[in-house]
Write a structure and sequence with these properties.
Elements lengths: L2 E12 L2 E12 L3 E5 L6 H8 L7 E6 L2 E2 L8 E4 L11 H11 L5 H11 L12 H14 L4 E5 L7 H18 L2 E5 L3 H7 L2 E6 L2 E7 H7 E7 L11 E7 L3 E7 L10 E4 L2 H9 L13 E3 L2
Parallel strand pairs: 3-8, 3-9, 6-7, 7-8, 10-15
Antiparallel strand pairs: 1-2, 1-4, 4-5, 9-10, 11-13, 11-14, 12-13
Helix pairs in contact: 3-4, 4-5
Length: 296
């Protein structure tokens, strides 16, 4: 499997505070990857390290098979969390700047997108709506002709309609230009709509990663008579458990059929899976919190 991004023991420290610690991750190329996790999990730090805007304190990170930064920057399109544009520059000025800074710049692609989006080339970015600025930032990222497009919560500040339009436009760009994408988001609905691969990051550690279709096919909710989760078969990984006096509800991951007739078995939604891993206690024993990688 070729890798778009690989981190090994990666950490970033600001003074006495660790923003990212001991992060180990393999992100496959050729996929649209959703990176999700709670605030403070280290998502933005990881993505900024991947484009060379930060340097690691510990460990290492590779992008497209080589150390992050340097020559790899020309192969990466990056849309940061606040979809940055220059307020006093016009749309046309942004395209000219993109052409000067990026050796693989595709001017015809950029101009065609601006025209299709209905953006006035003479309009200053500071006068654009949030959705228009996000589309301009995406245009700059795509027109670089990158191999990997990284988006750090690019639609977090947009209204639902603008968010949907942005994601639809992103998927068209992915299909047309065969991009690998890493999309950080705190909205599971955006990941479900746009991505085919999931990474859940909690406390800097990957809790689960894999093809979304396979994750949904291997995670279940079991409801039945009260039972200690430690008594479950070894091929059934318990992700979370809740109990009443008489009943237990377990969220599990397994590749095998569930044969115990005492259980009522139901499938999970993607939101169920994400919340189950995000809710795992950071103080739980490490052998109780397996890093699961699901690929088929």
């Amino acid at each position: 499997m070729t890798t778009a991004l690989r981190a090994q023991g990666l950490g970033k420290k600001y003074g006495r505070r660790w923003a990212l610690t001991d992060c180990t991750l393999d992100v496959p190329s050729g996929r649209v990857v959703g990176l999700v996790g709670p605030n403070g999990a280290g998502k933005s730090t990881l993505l900024n390290l991947s484009v060379g805007m930060l340097t690691p304190t510990t460990g290492g990170i590779e992008v497209l098979g080589a150390p992050a930064g340097g020559e790899q920057l020309s192969k990466i399109g990056f849309v940061a969390q606040d979809t940055p544009t220059y307020a006093r520059l016009s749309v046309a000025d942004h395209l000219k700047l993109g052409a000067r800074l990026n050796p693989r710049w595709d001017d015809s692609l950029a101009e065609a997108r601006i025209q299709r989006l209905g953006l006035d080339p003479k309009q200053r970015a500071g006068k654009l709506s949030g959705g228009q600025r996000a589309q301009l930032a995406l245009t700059l990222g795509v027109a670089k002709r990158p191999e990997l497009l990284i988006l750090d919560e690019p639609v977090a500040a947009l209204d639902p309609l603008a968010r949907r339009e942005f994601l639809q436009d992103l998927m068209e760009a992915v299909t047309e230009h065969e991009l690998s994408v890493i999309l950080s988001s705190h909205l599971v609905s955006d990941v479900e709509r746009s991505c085919d691969y999931l990474v859940v990051l909690v406390d800097s550690r990957v809790q689960v990663s894999g093809d979304i279709e396979t994750l949904l096919a291997t995670h279940y909710r079991l409801t039945g008579p009260r039972r200690d989760e430690k008594s479950m078969p070894p091929n059934q990984y318990v992700i979370s458990a809740s109990h009443t006096d008489r009943q237990s509800t377990l969220l599990i991951r397994t590749d095998e059929p569930i044969l115990d007739p005492a259980w009522t078995v139901s499938q999970l939604t993607l939101e169920d899976v994400v919340l189950a891993y995000m809710g795992r206690s950071s103080s739980a024993p490490q052998n109780n919190r397996p890093v699961l990688e699901v690929q088929r």
